Description:
- The structure holds 2 protein chains of 2 kinds.
- Helices cover about 70% and strands about 0% of the residues of chain A.
- The relative contact order of chain A is 0.06.
- Chain A is extended.
- Chain A has helices at about 1-5, 15-35, 40-60, 65-90, 100-125, 145-150, 160-180.
- Chain A contains 7 helices and no strands.
- The radius of gyration of chain B is 17 Å and the shape is elongated.
- Chain B has one domain: Helix Hairpins (Orthogonal Bundle).
- By secondary structure, chain B is an all-alpha fold.
- Helix content of chain B is about 75%, strand content about 0%.
- Chains A and B meet through helix 2, helix 3, helix 4, helix 5 and helix 6 of A and helix 1, helix 2 and helix 3 of B.
Amino acid sequence: MAENLTSIDFAGLFTADNIVFCLLSAVILVCGFMSVASTKILRAATYLFFTLFAVAGLYLTLNYEFIAAVQLSVYAGGILVLLIFAIMLVKNLGTDTETTSYVNKTIAGIAALAGAVFAFITMSKYRFISNEEANDASEMIDMEMIGQTLMGTDKYQYLLAFEAVSILLLACIVGSIVVATKSKED
Amino acid sequence: MIPVEAYLVVSTLLFFIGVYGFFVRKNLIGILMAVELILNAVNINFVVFNRFLYPDHLEGYMYSLFVIVVAAAETAIAISIIINVYRKLSNIRVDSINELKN
């Protein structure tokens, strides 16, 4: 069966790369749209989960494993669980349907579509780097290079940003506890 | 290999799906989810340009890493604010949050 499939030459159109990319982008776009169009918020969160998962797959097609792992653990593992917790904590949100007027939907759709068309027109005016000119993207980056870039102090290295982000996360932890704590007067 | 335009088309469409969701959603958590979609579209762009233009550098890579971290921080803060709003108003619809208006 497999030999039969490989013997048919579709002029290189149905390579494994292309099929995987098309599947991933279909999942991203369909689930992304469902996650903004679904009337039940818990279902929307589930669709968002699939979108984030497929975006991690897109990073894997570019051979960036580390950022795919970060995407899975921080977005799909952390942020989404936080969102679902919030949905569960707020009463009736998981079962209530959300209604938006058709006028609103039409205007928002026109605005988004106009933006997309504008972006595509701008994109078609530029000649992007072609596959032949592009550097070989099949090689993997080793963890050592990522670590040195994240922790170095030279040019193109990001220790300062790393430390700033760590301060930001600390401030964020303290801030969210302070904001969410019940005050005594209530 | 997939051409760079294909990735850009996917990320543009995802971005404007997020924009549409940002416009139509009425509750705060829905808006937060739309913002996550927008951030993801931007991340795809950063990573793809990094991969195709400078595969031996990691600028876009690091940038999208920091975007992910900041998105996590933003979500935590936003959810604590949402829980606070829910405690005060017992709903989280955007049009009922108008206490600062007067």
